[in-house]
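Q: Could you fold this chain for me?
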Amino acid sequence: METLGFRGEALASIAAVAEVEAISRRADSDCGHRYRIRGTATAGDEARGDGPEPVAAPPGTSIEVRNLFFNVPARRKFLRAAPRSCRTSWRA
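A: Sure. Below is the predicted structure, expressed as structure tokens.
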């Protein structure tokens, strides 16, 4: 996959609902640094993170997202009643 760049505005939102690992190394540096952030299981809690941790890495930045929406409950659990939800969606 190729990209023209990633500015990172959504990274905080992604990290709140996933496990994120970012590894970055400047071209003039001998080693890179790894940051790990994991969203919380409870809304309102702060995400947990580790880093910076020195690692071997090529120049540049890589971001890996795992277990997207692992802490977001299934929608069905929060429906008041299936018939009411269906009526609402049919009207739209």
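A (continued): The first strand starts at residue 19 and ends at 25.
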